[in-house]
Structure formats: C-alpha cells, structure tokens
Design brief:
The complex is a heterodimer. Chain A has 9 helices and 12 strands. By secondary structure, chain A is α+β, with helices and mostly antiparallel strands. Classes of the chains: A alpha+beta, B alpha+beta.
Chain lengths: 329, 306
C-alpha cells in the first residue's frame, strides 16, 4: 500500500514509506536479512514474467559481463535463463523440494538410491534431540549447494540452543531463492527442516560427479575435487566417453588425469533415465566405491548466470541443447 | 571531521531500525514469521532457545504472555498520556508529572509558549527514549524538534514492532508537553508483580549517574540471590524510607494483571509514578543464575489463552 517501485533501465530502486532502501541498510537487518531477497519478497505478488525478465537480464549482465539476447538464445547461460522464464513443467516442483524429491527418486529408481530421512519438522523447537541418533545431518528443504546444512558428528558435543537458532533462521518466508533468482519452482515453497542420516563414506573431500543431460543425453560431465582446499578447487568437464573437454570455469583449475569412477556406466544409465523427462537437467551423484546416491536434480546450474572462462565455451555448450517449443505466456 | 561525524550521528536516527523490519514483516507476511523473529531475538539476548508451547522460565512465560494474553486495560496502561487519568482514579492522589498540553500536529510546538523548562514526549515511549528536554531555549532548534517528533510518530516506531508485544498494538501516537523535574538525584524502584501481587523490586539508587549500582530485595526487604541485567549488584546499608509505600502502591496497581512491572521515581523524598511495563520490550533481561529463572517462572501462573 505504501510501495512505489521506480524502474530504471539498469537498476530497480525500492522506496518504502519515503525511505529509500539501498545496500547500506544491510547492517540494520543483520540477523534475518539475506541480500536483496528480503526486498524482492516485499513486492512478491507483483512479479509478472516480463518483470522477472527485466531483473534477470540485469543480474545476467552483472555476473557474466554480456547482455543476454532472450529473443534468440544461443549460449548455455542464455538458454538456462530462457527455460527459467518460459518453460514450466509441474514435475520440477516435486524435484526441487528436498523432502518430496526423495519420494520421486524412490518411485523411479528405488529406495536404495537416496539418503534415508530420519525426521521432518515444521518448527525449530519441535526438533527432539533425544530421538535422533549419535550422528546426523540437519538441512532445510530449499537450500542450495552447501548452504543451510549442519553436520552433527557427535550429538553430545553440540550446543543445542545454537543449532536451534540457526535452523530457526531458515524458516522465514523470504529465505527462498525465488526472490533472488526467480526459479519459479520455489515460489510459495514452505520452508521446513529435514534430518538425514550421516554417511561416513560421503563425508569429507570426496569428488562430486554432475551429469548435464541435454535433451535426455548426458553429454557433459563435471567433476569437482578438493573443494575444501582454498584456491585449489579443480573443476573438470568431460564428455560421455571420459575425454577431458577444454572448458574452464574462472577461479578453478582443470585436472587432466581424473580417475574414472567404478560405477560410471551405471551413473550414465541413471542420468539417462532421469533426464529424458526434461529438456535440461543436471543430476548430482554422491559416489562411494560400491554405491551410488542421487544428491539432487538441478534445472538451472549456477542460476543460469555462472560465467565460463571464455564466451566460446558458453556458446559450444549451448549448441548441445535444443530448446522445446513453448507458446509465450 | 569530528563535526561531520556528529551530523552523521544525528541523521542516523532517521534510518530504518529493527522495528521497521518488523513493521514490513507484519504488514506483508501476516503472522507467519513472527515466531521465527521472536525466537531469534530471545536467543540473542538471553542465551537459550525459548520453548513457547510449554513455557517454564520467567522469560519464556513473559514471551508467552506478550503473544497470547490480550487485555484492553493493558493497552490503556501502556499509553503514557492516558494512563495519568487512570492512576488518579485508582489511587485517589496525583502521582504523575503534570501535563502542560497536548499537540495535535508538529506545527503546534512553540518553545516560548510556556515560561521555564519543560519536556516534550510521545505517549508510546519507554523510559527516557523519545523525549526532548527543553532546557535552554536559545540553543534548541525548533526544526530539529519537529523533525524528531515527526519521525517518532511514524507507525513503525510503535513499540509493538520491536517484538510484537500485544498491549502496544492499538496505541495511537499523541505528542504532549510535560512539566520538567530535575532528575539528577533520583532513585528508581522497579517492582515486579506476579498474579496481582508485588514480588520483588529492583532499587536503582542515583540511576542517572554514570556508575550506578542495583540492589534487589523481595517484598519483605530480604536480599535475593539472583541478579537481573548487566548492572552490578550491591547491598544497601539501611532500608529506604519509601520502600513499604512503593510495595503497597504496586500491589494496588498490579491487581488486574498476571504479570506487570511498575516503575516509580523517588525525587527529593517524594514518589512519582513512571510507567507500566508488560511483555518483552520491558523486562527482557538475563536472570543469573539460570535456576532462578526457573524458580521465578514457577511463581507466575499463566491465564488461559485469550
């Protein structure tokens, strides 16, 4: 009721009750404030597709250094952003929530491919630490990457109040990536707390395998090694016959002698099975010597704005993906 | 540079605060996030995570009351302009500082209207916040006073938005002028009342001096074993003259409420009423040792949800 949004070609400024909000106010909202997510959440109902597109284009330019052409998308990142705006499939909603995602995988592949859930809670003071085993992992159902995860290796040594406080802060409405990068699946997703089993084999510096499925075919595979060593992170792109591709992400190096995992063929099979339903999906695996776990399904890697070292590779990866025909909404 | 810093400090009070954040949350997200924000604030200030569904400690119970106990009388008591009439009716004597006049808008404020010193206040303030002492009329700037008053009467400066303390919710802002009383040698009595009866009192002797100390006694003037807040504790040599009278007054005033804190001034041997405090924004402080937080919590009986 008090809000007026002033749109400029490059910036969106929010003024509220005569107060202009800028980044300087970050300190004021320290505890529960997450970047511009809070401001975007205030005007949450007002985002039409056209508005989302304007804000995403702005964000795209800031992160990757070139302005996207969404009328005729060519590069990988442009195509990701295009999919995010115009191609909506209801099944993706189920895959994004980490609680319902497990049911989905169990339905298609079987229960042995997901990490077992111990409990699900709506509020932080519902967490019953007496019931839980000695080791476990606490997550929110809508976190990304390594964000919003607490690993408990010994229950007796933790400060319960601190754990509760941290888990509590995940439950605010605007702690939702919809308001940051407009991933439409997250809209109206209710944040909840999830407790999982802790698996020794996955803990620590185990390499990650991320299979990028273009129109159902896993044509590019990304491995990530040494992610906890500062400045030594290795990101290697490979094709489906385990040949190293000369693609590089900034701030990382390429490891040309990556070991092929033992269960590589099975991973390919699984990613084909999961990928055939979507135009693009990235399947993340946790891999131990004799077992595979599906970690998560990602539809827009890096939010569709993660840059490559040169634009050429952005274009070459983009050529692999054929976009579906969608009527403009 | 030093002067620039001063100007920046002056401006900084017009910037948004925690209450603005809460105001936005209240108006745009209904009540879905309130529990999260309150639990965050509580843990930060007191050091443990509150269990609001089954409150046991005093602080948890006060938090529960601030959310679930809705009494219209509390709204009247929190309003520092209207409460003066209520005190007069209850006690039959005038214990408050007398009001000079009420301002309808900020342009009514005139420094030369009244000879001598006076104080300008907003009715939803707490303690000495949101007050201006007009002492030296030549030095005080009318524009700054107006700007401050305009800011203080904005809806998000309602104390309701600091921690969703219910009594403040429907308070409407009133600006008024009050007589000035020199508080240099002033003692404060803060009486905690449980179930309509005074239980213990904090005595802050010379509370406006820089290094004041606090002593805590129960209603029979017996020293207690716990401390409240950061102020260090000290034992008094003699019983203050007005102690029994203050307990008696607090008994009378606290009768309708399950929990309330009543504050009194003692200036030159005379007792003045200061304010009623309900809920967190008032008595939100650490009780040491923790077991006393539980013992005090046992004394307080919670009413049914209303």
């Amino acid at each position: 009721m008090f809000i007026t949004r002033i749109e400029k070609p490059e910036k969106t400024v929010l003024s509220f009750c005569g107060i202009k909000f800028t980044r300087k106010h970050k300190k004021v909202f320290m505890d529960l404030y997450n970047k511009n997510r809070f401001y975007n959440a205030i005007v949450k109902n007002n985002f039409s597709i056209a508005e989302r597109r304007g804000i995403l284009e702005d964000r795209f330019y800031k992160k990757t250094g070139y302005f996207p052409n969404l009328n005729n998308p060519q590069t990988f990142n442009e195509k990701m952003t295009w999919l995010k705006l115009y191609c909506h499939d209801e099944v993706q909603k189920k895959c994004v929530d980490k609680i319902t995602f497990k049911d989905y995988i169990a339905q298609i592949l079987g229960k042995e491919y997901v990490i077992p859930t111990i409990a699900v809670y709506d509020r932080a003071d519902d967490i019953n630490f007496d019931e839980l085993p000695q080791k476990f992992v606490i997550k929110s159902n809508c976190g990304w990457g390594g964000d919003q995860v607490i690993i408990v290796k010994d229950k007796t040594k933790i400060n319960i109040d601190r754990v509760r406080r941290q888990a509590n802060s995940w439950l605010v409405t605007w702690n939702n990536y919809f308001y940051q990068s407009f991933d439409w699946e997250y809209e109206n997703l209710k944040p909840r707390i999830l407790v999982e089993e802790f698996l020794e084999a996955i803990d620590g510096d185990v390499p990650d395998y991320k299979f990028h499925c273009f129109n159902g075919e896993p044509k590019a595979i990304l491995t990530i090694e040494d992610r906890f060593k500062k400045g030594q992170i290795k990101k290697t792109f490979l094709d489906d016959k385990w040949n190293v591709l000369p693609i590089r992400r900034p701030h990382s190096t390429v490891n040309k002698n990556v070991k092929k995992p033992k269960l590589f063929d099975e991973m390919l099979k699984i990613s084909r099975k999961l990928g055939e339903k979507f135009p693009f999906v990235r399947v993340d695996f946790y891999n131990t010597d004799n077992k595979i776990y599906v970690g998560e399904l990602t539809f827009y890697p890096g939010g569709g704005v993660e840059p490559f070292a040169t634009k050429e590779w952005d274009i070459q990866l983009g050529e692999l993906l054929k976009l579906p025909d969608v009527k403009e909404k | 540079m030093a002067e620039l810093r001063k100007v920046q400090l002056k401006i900084s009070q017009f910037y948004p605060k925690q209450s603005v954040f809460n105001y936005i949350n209240h108006n745009f997200f209904s009540e879905e996030n309130n529990d999260v924000i309150l639990a965050e604030r509580f843990t930060k200030a007191i050091g443990y995570y509150p269990n609001v569904q089954e409150p046991k400690t005093l602080n948890e119970k006060i938090l529960w009351l601030s959310q679930n106990y809705h009494n219209q009388l509390a709204t009247l008591c929190v309003d520092r302009y209207l409460v003066k009439q209520y005190i007069k009716e209850q006690l039959g004597e005038d214990l408050c500082f007398s009001t000079i006049r009420k301002y309808d808008s900020i342009y009514d404020v005139d420094l030369n209207e009244y000879p001598g010193k006076f104080v300008i206040k907003v009715n939803w303030n707490l303690g000495k916040n949101q007050t201006i002492n007009v002492i030296n009329k030549d030095k005080s700037s009318l524009d700054l006073i107006r700007a401050k008053l305009d800011n203080w009467t904005q809806p998000w400066n309602n104390l309701y938005y600091t921690d969703y303390n219910w009594p403040y919710k429907d308070v409407k802002p009133i600006m008024f002028a009050e007589e000035y009383v020199d508080k240099k040698a002033c003692n404060k009595y803060k009486v905690y009342c449980f179930n309509g009866k005074a239980d213990f009192a904090l005595l802050d002797m010379n509370c406006y001096s820089l290094k004041y100390k606090r002593s805590i006694y129960d209603r029979n003037f017996k020293e207690t074993d716990f401390t409240i807040g950061k102020t260090s504790k000290v034992q008094l040599k003699t019983k203050p003259q007005n102690f029994d009278r203050v307990i008696e007054l607090a008994d009378k005033l606290s009768k309708p409420f399950p929990f309330v804190r009543v504050d009194f001034y003692e200036i030159g041997g005379k007792i003045y009423f200061e304010q009623f405090l309900f809920g967190l924004s008032s008595s939100f402080s650490k009780i040491k040792p923790l077991e006393w937080d539980y013992k005090l919590g046992e004394k307080l009986n919670l009413p049914e949800k209303s």
